[in-house]
Amino acid sequence: MRGSSPDLAFCGLFGQGKTARFFLFTVSIFLIFFGCAAPVAHATTVWLDTDASIGSPFREVDDAFALLLAFRCSNLRIAGISTTYGNAPLMRTTAVTTKFVGRFGRGAGGNTPAIHPGARSPKDLGVETAASRGLAKALRENRNVVYVALGPLTNLATFEMLHPGLARRIHRVIFLGGVTERSSLRFGSRHPIQIHDANVFKDPEAVRRVLGANIPMTLIPIESASQVMVDATDLEEIGRSSEAGQFLRKNSGVWLWFWTKYVGTEGGLLFDAAAVVAAANPALLGMERRSATVDSAGNLLVSRKPIPHSRTVLYCPTLPSAAKKFVRQRLSAHVR
């Protein structure tokens, strides 16, 4: 059989003629249809908790960029979105989120994710809301939901208090917060500003309760998240990519000016986008195991060494360039 083609060799085994040709044809179709089919990527089911507030010059817009990034990640299935106080009062964050998601958000199967208003302030800790009811329904229908917290943890802590059994179904919490002894939250070279660990500062008791629940937790500190930026060129490209990008560009001009021209950073800081990266493509982030606890002053302290009353978390000490590139590419991807 030396020098013969594979087809002829195969025919030699099974005989020549119509029977052999039919057999070859059948096998070929089977291999093409089953053997060569590309595997379908497994989707991660996420619940997004946001304090989105678009409205320059007084409000940050990073939540909206994070929401758009989540919509652009085809491997994320959004089970629902809850709103909370934080960047603005609950009424404002709910209105902004509802409008933005209604216009530009698409979940699994092309459906728009439902919006569930949550806590109005830390005083609502333990109070049943549409957010806690919506999350309970989502967890009854889906196991292994990843909870992405872009604001204070009041909604999640409340849910754990009211539904501790269902809370154990949460696969992981991704939270934008945490500091080390060496953390610096001072930004800018022209008019530097010192900010606080906002999501922790606004409800440290909620953070303490979530840590105590022992749900697997990933912390994306502000210091690391601040490394995701967009400059004027990026913003123009995002604006040309889609209607949603154009909307964000129009509403981000004063925000970008504040960071780049007044504060003196290289771009507008997209803090919340880093938390979405941790859900969509965690392999891009160099995670480390650390110990975390809330101290008596209400700080979420993270350390390489065990500290009293702490628990183990995953911690992102810095954001690799690949993660920053991932954010820019997804946000500027052209879609109809």
Total number of β-strand segments? 13
User: Topology as H/E string?
Assistant: HHEHEHEHEHHEEEHHEHEHHHEHEEEH
User: Overall mean pLDDT score?
Assistant: 87
Spatial shape: globular
Instruction: Work out the count of structural domains.
Output: 2
Q: Superfamily at the CATH H level of the largest domain?
A: Ribonucleoside hydrolase-like
Q: Main β-sheet, in a few words?
A: 9 strands, mixed
Would you give the CATH topology of the largest domain?
A: Inosine-uridine Nucleoside N-ribohydrolase, Chain A
Contiguous uncertain segments of 5+ residues? 1-16, 18-41
SS-based class: alpha/beta
The rounded Rg comes to 24 Å
Helix content: 40-55%
For the record, the CATH architecture of the largest domain stands as Alpha-Beta Complex
Distance between the termini: 55 Å
Strand residues, percent: 15-25%
Name of the CATH first level of the largest domain: Alpha Beta
* Order of strands, widest sheet: 3-2-1-4-5-8-13-11-12
Number of helices: 15
